[in-house]
Amino acid sequence: MSQEHVPSTPVTLEGVRRTGGQRRYWKSLDELADAPAFLEFLHREFPEQASMFQDPKGRREFMTLMGASLALAGLTACTKQPEETILPYVRQPEQLVPGRPLFFATATGHDGYARGILVESHEGRPTKIEGNPEHPASLGGTDVFGQAHVLGLYDPDRSKAVLYLGQQRTWGDFKAALREPLAKQQAKGGTGLRFLTGRNTSPTLAAQMRSLIAAFPGAKWTSWEPATRDNSRAGAVLAFGEPVEAQYRFERADVILSLEADFVAGHPASLRLVREFAARRKPAGETPEMSRVYVVEGSPTSSGASSDHRLALKSSEIEGFARAVAAELGVVVQGGVAHAWAAPVAKDLKRAGARALVMVGESQPPAVHAIGHAINEALGAVGSTVSYTAPAETAAGGEAQSLAALVAEMRQGVVEMLVILGSNPVYAAPVDLDIASALDKVPFRIHHGLGNDETAARSHWHLPASHPLESWGDLRAADGTVSIVQPLIAPLYHTLSELEVLAAFTEGEQKGHEILRAHWQDALGAADFEKRWNRALHDGVVAGTAFEAKALRVKPGAWASAGATPPPGSGLEIAFRTDPAVFDGRFANLGWLQELPKPLSKITWDNVALVSPKTAAELGGVKTEQTASGHVTELAELTLDGRSVVAPLWVLPGHADGAVTVHLGYGRTRAGRVGSGVGFNAYALRTSDAAWGRGGLQVRKTGGTTLIACTQDHWTMDATPHHQAEERHIVRSVTLAELAKDKHAIQKLGHEPAPGLSMYPPHEYKGHAWGMTIDMSACVGCNACVTACQSENNIPVVGKDQVGRGREMQWIRVDRYYEGTPENPETYHQPVVCMHCENAPCEVVCPVAATVHSDEGLNDMVYNRCVGTKYCSNNCPYKVRRFNFLLYQDWTTPTFKMLRNPEVTVRSRGVMEKCTYCVQRISRARIDAKNLGREIRDGEVVTACEAACPAQAIVFGDVNDPESRVSKLKAGDRNYGLLAELQTKPRTSYLGAVRNPNPEIPGAGSEGQQHG
Amino acid sequence: MASQDRVVHPVIGPGHTFASVTDKISSIVLTTKTPIGWFVGFGIAFSLFMVFLATVSYLLVKGVGIWGVNVPVGWGFDIINFVWWIGIGHAGTLISAILLLLRQQWRTSINRFAEAMTLFAVACAGMYPILHMGRPWVGAYWLMPYPNTMGLWPNFKSPLVWDVFAVSTYATVSLLFWYVGLIPDLATLRDRAANRTVKIVYGFFAVGWRGSARHWANYEMAYLILAALSTPLVLSVHTVVSFDFAVGVIPGWHATIFPPYFVAGAIYAGFAMVLTLAIPLRKAYGLEDFITLRHIENMAKVMLATSLIVAYGYLMEAFMAWYSGNSYERFMMWNRMAGPYGWSYWALIFCNVIVINTLWIKALRTNVVYLFFISLVVSVGMWLERFVIIVTSLHRDFLPSSWGNYRGTIFDWSMFIGTIGLFLTLFFLFIRFLPTISIFEMRTLVPAAQPAEDKQ
Question: Taking CB atoms and an 8 Å limit, are A871 and B330 in contact across chains?
């Protein structure tokens, strides 16, 4: 894959094109070029070129470039394609070769915080997201939300027009309607004007807001997210007196204790943390070495699954444990609850000293955060594995309180004009606020967002928002680094960005690009501005914007002496968590995410009430039965504080007893055709004082059942003999001690056939022979590879019904295996792609030779030749083949046509498909190398899954080249073939999982597989 | 029925002459008023055939996703029914060819309709491999080796390609064999028909048969050659069908025992179907003199013998799973017996192994009502055998992560019932328009023909 970073010259013309009118383009280029707006634009944007514009000779040259750029920019404006006229470039735009994608650096905001991405653009259409290796919060990795970012752009249910009480209006109508109430507010000093946004890290938006508030001194700005970070901010205030952000460095940490901190998925810097975590989980060589991770958590997460020791405690019990560990380490705290693990964990932390780290999750109360800071200080970790900086968001902490204050004002009738930008409080606000009824008291309500959602329905005006891939903006990462968000395409519909909507409240510049540039011109200084600006656009980061570390000391306070928060009252404890697939609900309409099997439960298209096996038994047993159309499970009514919802019950091994976990983000009523009416709305139970959970939950089985589409059952809980993963040598894991004792410990777990044991001569490979390794020790099961593959390979979404029937189409799946007791099992994630077997069972049985071995060792699938007997799938021991049982591809929705990767065939009904090792990327690298007259180099072919993987667990390359990374890994001691005893000779091999248990932990002696 | 006390039942009832045999059989087609029962039966069969057409139309519009197939269970009712029908088709050839070569005279009265049944069963079976494909419009001919400009050939390593040859050869030879055997009788019908149109139609298909000695000599030679050609087919077709599974790597499929055990199972199923059809037929048309208890009992004995081979197959599968020490094989067997589809395994054992052993008792073996019931049980059992082999092997194979369940949808059932409709429709048409029993061969059995027979 070639990643060419080019400055974004083409897209800066987006503003001009708006002036000219999109559809008049091709007809009136001259007219447009003479338009005053255009000339003005030229002077402002390109002072040098503008003077050249007057000079006939220079003008011609300029027009050459301009024309080409306009042609490029114009091509992107495919709002309507009434007829398919192919227009060749008169002059080829620089760097654009038809058929060759360009990559532009920008950023996505996840929960407000920037994650750097590179966007692949095919002739002006963004089609694929890659991580930006130069961005500190990405390092080249992406997560499922980043991958689905591009689907969000093409979501056919996005808002397309300004609505007033549901009726279509124009932006002009809106601005006219705004004039009078705004003038009224101006007169009152803005005392009735309120703004509500999501968590904001955009310096430009913050500056804009500041100037707005300067103009309307009585106005107030509230920023709030459903996934609040109030606890960690309040914890920092307790410990240090200011709401700092803790920056963790996993690569320096030998021992990590996570107190319900989901570093894999629940932290603004997760991608970086996973990268650093995984780097220390790949033991190799004569003296293998790795970190040790303890996770204490109530609701099972991928972090817990990837740890060496996982302690399942109810969320409310963790504080007592934290205090006990702190006390062992000499931190002066009271209220510790004795636990057998506290002493050995503390001892281990102490041993590691400055190379230890304690991390506390958002779901823990502020006091636990303060204790975590105190432990880190006591260990000497500050400055080594943890440092403190200013928070990236404009208003740090107290989000829930400020929202409550806003709602109170709304009820009092103080708020006369409410502007909601990019937030959906009607759906997600704490239920006790009853924001919907409070909204009715506000006389003038404006909602700006991507979708015509629950809040839009309660607002007078709904303004359609531009997607971040079609607008200008800026965002900070959690460490403070600023990224410029640049558009890849002109807005598909008549939409405006947040910056542009806010601009409507003031006189002055109205265009997002100009607002942004003006801000940064001030911030970066005029000297060298163009150069620095272009550099920032090219790199995807504004150099030198990361925050400085602060030298802070933990201050003693009441948090130390106060005992653990009193245990909650009778009943069970409920835990609210953001969903691993649809997050807080904002992604509910994205089919890729809905259909993503959740990392541990493997449920798609639903949220459920997760309980431990013991709690299930206490509830009278939860009967979940696998049928041919999905899993039938029992329904229960969850009642908290008199509010109740009906949810499917689901037993999840490793869940803390006496607690129920529900994921947010479901039960949307106005998400769109995909997300509306899916799952139950857990927000209906979530109150202001219980953002992440509380006690007093009543669960009553209703007697009803429901169907859940789950892609993998809990087979470990079955009494079936002869099927356990270890007996089948599917998952091989050893402890670090075992590996140190015998470096072949992993390979000895299986029985590989003797080499050369075949009746047929082996295939010969004169050139390349592609292969892959997947490191199960590094894999955290985050699913990024699954979504990346779905995006790269035009994989359709089939819907809940079809998934329930076992017809999901994802080419890569992440298998989850449990080992040990259902109460607290060891969990392993095993991504499974096509093995591209040397002796492929599928190839032999295909009657029409539609799946054949290539001369580079790939098991190629010839869609045109496939007649769909499904014999290959039946005969595949890995069951990686996917069949188009029905017409799964959406051939009609116009935006989806823009979404597709033009280099990958869109499959139709009746053909088999499967992982191709991203053969299109191999071909691209081959062509590039051939043009340069050289061989493909190691690392030039990067499959979509490999590129996305934040843990770098997947390595792809040429196994014929002994110096390639993949060859070296395959020659390593942890390498083994899945089901290699079948003599399939898989080309995808696995590096066995290594765990590093502490022998002093009670029960740790039985870790690892007992196999001879 | 007067001869029940005799040790060996005759192959033809007493008192028949050349003329009575010819009259009796040809009258069913030519002179007797078609019984109301035929119309009722045909009406039902034809309605079911319409169900088949409707299902196939919907299938072609929507795709095979209307069935219950999925990943991991990529084959379901489609291939179960294919193998089931092909198995049923085996009796015809066995009776016609092997028993002819072995000079088993008792085959004579049942060979005609057994062959017809074979053809119709193969027609039903042939639908499935084509319709089970995702893209039957191309698959229907891409599996054939035909010269094309792209130089593309089918993959001769694939058992599905072998199937194409095996099944199409079988269908062709069976059709020829049946048709050649029909020629003298078609001539008889031509000669006895009163209606001119009917005469022309039968005459066309009788291809100028005059019954000359030369005709008979050629006929005998042709029939013998076709018999010799079909004999290996009896063994080969189901052997090749069993390769579809045996060549696969899936535990429960990958077994060398499959070919003999499939062939035995096919003959077993085929004879069961012959009995299912013969018992009502002889009653409805009063053919007890031609299809005597001797026939019935012999067929029961063949069923009993093949059931023992099949039972041995089941036993060996279980034994080898244990003896191999292979955990996948052991799990497969455990899963068959105690997994979610355990009921199907035990139902299969009950139908194919347990119930059939009552036929050791002669009184039951010669009780036509009981045999009719047994023949249905065996048909169900053999269907379950294919269900067990295909579904329970596939639904839980190597990686527990990909395990799934399977269940036929309404369209699986309507397709299955539809092919039964197709089969019965063809069979009812056959009964109505062609002699269900070979007239000229029956004539060789009447006492008057015996001296000539002895001289040979």
Answer: no
Chain B contact set for A871 (CB, 8 A): 74-75, 158, 160, 244
For A911, the closest of B71, B135, B400 (CB atoms) is: B135
Look at A845 and B158 and tell me if their CB atoms are within 8 Å.
Answer: yes
CB atoms within 10 A of CB A276: 22
* CA pair distance A245, A388, nearest whole angstrom: 6
Q: Is A510 helix (H, G, I), strand (E, B) or coil?
A: coil
Structure tokens at A252: 């320096």
- pLDDT value at residue A795: 94
- Single pTM value for the model: 0.87
Given A832, A883, A979, which is nearest B134 (Cβ)? A883
Nearest Cα of chain A lies from the Cα of B244 at a distance, in angstroms, of: 8
Partner-chain contact B74 A979, CB within 8 Å? no
Closest of A509, A505, A498 to residue A417, by C-alpha: A505
Distance in angstroms between the alpha carbons of the first and the last residue of chain B:
31
pLDDT of B456 higher than 50: no
Task: Give me the CATH number covering residue B404.
Answer: 1.20.1630.10
DSSP state letters, A605-648: S---EEE-HHHHHHTT----EEETTEEEEEEEEEEETTEEEEEE
pLDDT of residue A707: 93
Mean pLDDT of A276-302: 90
Q: Are A589 and A673 in contact (CB under 8 A)?
A: yes
Q: Do B330 and A867 touch (CB under 8 A)?
A: no
* Model confidence pLDDT, tens digit, residues A895-924: 999 999 999 999 999 999 999 999 999 999
Provide, as residue numbers in chain A, all residues whose Cβ is less than 8 Å from the Cβ of B334: 720-722
What element of type H or E holds A455? helix A454-457
Number of domains in chain B: 1
Q: Which amino acid is at A875?
A: N
**Angle subtended at Cα A453 by Cα A147 and Cα A301, rounded to the nearest 5 degrees:** 45
Say if B151 falls within a structural domain: yes
Contacts of A911 in chain B (CB under 8 A): 134-135
Residue A375 structure tokens: 């432990």
Domain assignment present for residue B122? The answer is yes
* pLDDT at residue A151 greater than cutoff 90: yes
Distance from CA of residue A853 to its chain's centroid?
A: 35
Q: Does any domain span residue B312?
A: yes
Residue B233's CB is within 10 A of a number of other CB atoms, namely: 22
Kindly report, residue by residue over A744-790, the tens digit of the pLDDT: 888 888 877 777 777 778 888 888 999 999 999 999 999 999 999 99
Peptide bond between residue A181 and the one before it cis (omega within 30 degrees of 0) = no
Residue A520 and residue A542: Cα distance in Å, rounded? 10
pLDDT digits (tens, 9 = 90+) for B226-285: 888 888 888 888 899 999 999 999 999 998 899 998 989 988 998 898 889 889 888 887
Helical residues (DSSP H) of A915-955, grouped into ranges = 919-931, 944-948
- Tell me how far apart the alpha carbons of residues B87 and B273 are, in angstroms, rounded to a whole number: 10
Q: Do B155 and A877 touch (CB under 8 A)?
A: no
Is the model's pLDDT at B28 over the cut of 80? no
Write down the residue that tokens 């991504």 correspond to. A831
Cα angle B391, B328, A848 (rounded to 5 degrees) comes to 55
Rg of chain A in Å (alpha carbons): 29
Please tell me which of the candidates A712, A713, A870 has its beta carbon nearest to residue B75.
Answer: A870
Q: How large is the ipTM?
A: 0.91
Dihedral, CA of residue B327, residue B332, residue B338 and residue B342, to nearest 10: 180
CA distance A533 to A515: 14
Please report whether residue B336 resides in a domain: yes
Q: B213-246 vs B159-192: helix axis angle to the nearest 10?
A: 150
Given pLDDT bands bounded at 50, 70 and 90, which one contains residue A718? very low
Helix (H) or strand (E) holding A716: none
- The whole domain housing B368 covers 18-449
